[in-house]
Amino acid sequence: VSALLRSIPSMFYVGLLLSLFFYIYSVLGVMLWKENDPVHFKNIWIAMLSLFRVVTLEDWTDIMYINMYGCDQYGYDGMEELCTNPSASPVGAALFFVSFVLIGTMVIMNLFIGVIMTSMEEAKQEANQDTALGRIQQRVEALQGTAGDTELLNEIRSLSGKVDVLKIEVERLRDQGKD
Fold first, then answer.
1. Which contacts qualify for 113-120: CB closer than 8 Å, 24 or more apart?
2. Residue pair 93/68 in contact by the 8 Å Cβ criterion
3. Could you tell me how far CA 20 lies from the centroid of its own chain?
4. How many CA atoms lie within 13 Å of 25's alpha carbon, on the beta-carbon side?
5. 153 near 133, Cβ under 8 Å?
6. What is the mean pLDDT of residues 129-153?
7. Highest mean pLDDT: which of 83-87, 125-129, 133-137, 160-164?
8. pLDDT per position as a tens digit, 6-44
9. How far apart are CA 44 and CA 54, in angstroms?
10. pLDDT over 70 for what percent of the chain?
């Protein structure tokens, strides 16, 4: 849970990048195939929904084939009245959809996974640091109850204070890096 909460700001930026990517391809898809494929590229919102279907790899080849072969040749069975201006674009449609799948599915969607994994690793390191610091403090408290070496005890207290100062400095530098 800590890792997911920590990854929200980075996931926002990846989501923004993904939205921009969808918008650019939606505009391009509407410009290229609005007449040939009004079911999937009638306007930008429908195009974005169709591209979501493509990026999730849900029957994306059907959308590609409609635009490769024309709506009169593929995909509009029983809806011929919607296919008013068929046009085939075999190379353009293949380049458009394959590039969208490669960039959208293989790159941008994996950024989400990378952000979450990085946050999980940071949370794990922080938990390990807190655990180690807790063990040091327990040992110091145990030494206080005995007649241990005073010099060693003072050195451990000094190191514990330095660790706290270093943690504060690391947090300050991390916050500056985010700004």
1. 115/7, 115/10, 115/11, 115/14, 116/3, 116/4, 116/7, 116/11, 118/7, 118/10, 119/3, 119/4, 119/6, 119/7, 119/10, 120/3
2. yes
3. 13
4. 27
5. no
6. 66
7. 83-87
8. 778 878 888 888 899 999 999 999 999 999 889 999 999
9. 15
10. 85
Instruction: Report the amino acid identity of residue 77.
Output: D
Q: Which residues contact 49 (CB under 8 A, 6 or more apart)?
A: none
Q: Does the global pTM surpass 0.70?
A: no
Instruction: Kindly calculate the radius of gyration of the chain based on its CA atoms and give it in whole angstroms.
Output: 28
AA letter at 173: L
What is the rounded CA–CA span in Å between residue 49 and residue 40? Answer: 8
Could you give the CA distance from residue 88 to residue 66 in angstroms, rounded to a whole number?
A: 8
CB-based contact 29:47 (threshold 8 Å): yes
DSSP-assigned states of every residue in 98-144: HHHHIIIIIIIHHHHHHHHHHHHHHHHHHHHHHHHHHHHHHHHHHHH
